[in-house]
C-alpha cells in the first residue's frame, strides 16, 4: 500500500512540474500575464544572463537620476518567474520622485553613497530612513515611495521586484506631464492655477 502511495505521489509531482521556465518570446505580443514562451529548442544560456546593469544610467535630466530596468522586456529569462531587478543611479541632488509599482513589492540595497528613502502607507503614515552602503529597505506593493541622494557624490542602488513587470506610475508626471486639464488638477490637489501651469511647463504637460 505504501509503495502504491509513493508511486502515486511521484506521478502527481511529475504532472505538477510540467515546465521549468518560460523564456519570453519578445517577438510576440505582451499580455498582463507576460510573454508567450520561446520554443525550447531556441532557448540558450544567454536567455538567463543579463549584463545591462553594469553601466551607469544617464543622469543628465530633470531628476538627475536614472533607472535601468532588468524586467522581462529586457531580460526574457525572467518571464513567468515573478522576479525582476533594476539599477538606480542618483547624481548629487538626484531624486526618484514619488511613484508606485502597482504590480510588485520592491527591495532596495544601497551599494554606493547614501540614499534618503521612504514610503507612505494607505493610512498616510510616513516611513523615512537614510540608507548607507549595505543598507536594505523594502517598499510594499502599490504604496507611494521615493529615493533622494543623501550625499554629495553619485549614489547607486540595486532594487529587486516581486514581478517580472512591476509597472510604474510617477505621481508628478501623472499630474503635470500630460493633458489632464489644469482646472481638474487644481480642484483635486488644492494647488493654485499659477503653480499648476508652472509645473506643467516644467514637465511638458498641456491643458
In short:
With 207 residues, this protein is α+β, with helices and mostly antiparallel strands.
Which descriptors would you attach to this protein?
Germin-like protein; five-stranded antiparallel sheet; alpha+beta; apoplast; RmlC-like_jellyroll; Germin_Mn-BS; 207 residues; globular; 28% strand; secreted
Record the SSE blueprint.
Elements (H helix, E strand, L loop, with lengths): L1 H15 L48 E6 L13 E7 L4 E6 L5 E7 L1 E7 L5 E7 L3 E4 L5 E5 L5 E7 L7 E2 H6 L5 H8 L3 H11 L4
Antiparallel strand pairs: 1-2, 2-9, 3-8, 3-10, 4-7, 4-9, 5-6, 5-8
Family: Belongs to the germin family.
Protein name: Germin-like protein
Organism: Heracleum sosnowskyi
Large-scale geometry: globular
SSE arrangement, N to C: HEEEEEEEEEEHHH
State the helical fraction.
Answer: 10-25%
Oligomeric form: single chain
Helix tally?
Answer: 4
Q: What's the gyration radius in Å?
A: 22 Å
Strand order of the largest sheet: 1-2-9-4-7
What fraction strand?
25-35%
> What is the structural class?
alpha+beta
DSSP strand count = 10
Measured distance between first and last alpha carbons: 75 Å
Q: Please, what is the average pLDDT?
A: 91
Low-confidence stretches: 10-16
Report the biggest beta sheet as strand number plus sense, adding barrel if it closes. 5 strands, antiparallel
Amino acid at each position: 500500500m505504501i509503495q502504491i502511495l509513493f508511486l502515486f505521489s511521484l506521478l502527481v509531482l511529475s504532472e505538477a512540474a510540467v515546465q521549468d521556465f518560460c523564456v519570453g518570446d519578445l517577438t510576440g505580443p505582451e499580455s498582463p500575464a507576460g510573454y508567450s514562451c520561446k520554443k525550447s529548442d531556441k532557448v540558450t544560456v544567454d536567455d538567463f544572463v543579463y549584463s545591462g546593469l553594469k553601466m551607469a544610467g544617464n543622469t543628465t535630466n530633470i531628476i538627475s537620476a536614472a533607472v535601468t530596468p532588468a524586467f522581462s522586456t529586457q531580460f526574457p529569462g525572467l518571464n513567468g518567474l515573478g522576479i525582476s531587478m533594476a539599477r538606480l543611479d542618483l547624481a548629487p541632488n538626484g531624486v526618484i520622485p514619488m511613484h508606485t509599482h502597482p504590480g510588485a513589492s520592491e527591495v532596495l540595497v544601497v551599494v554606493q553613497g547614501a540614499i534618503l528613502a521612504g514610503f507612505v502607507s494607505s493610512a498616510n503614515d510616513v516611513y523615512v530612513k537614510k540608507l548607507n552602503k549595505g543598507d536594505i529597505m523594502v517598499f510594499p506593493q502599490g504604496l507611494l515611495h521615493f529615493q533622494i541622494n543623501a550625499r554629495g557624490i553619485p549614489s547607486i542602488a540595486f532594487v529587486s521586484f516581486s514581478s517580472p513587470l512591476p509597472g510604474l506610475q510617477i505621481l508628478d508626471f501623472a499630474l503635470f506631464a500630460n493633458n489632464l486639464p489644469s482646472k481638474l488638477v487644481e480642484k483635486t490637489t488644492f494647488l493654485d492655477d499659477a503653480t499648476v501651469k508652472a509645473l506643467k511647463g516644467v514637465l511638458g504637460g498641456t491643458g
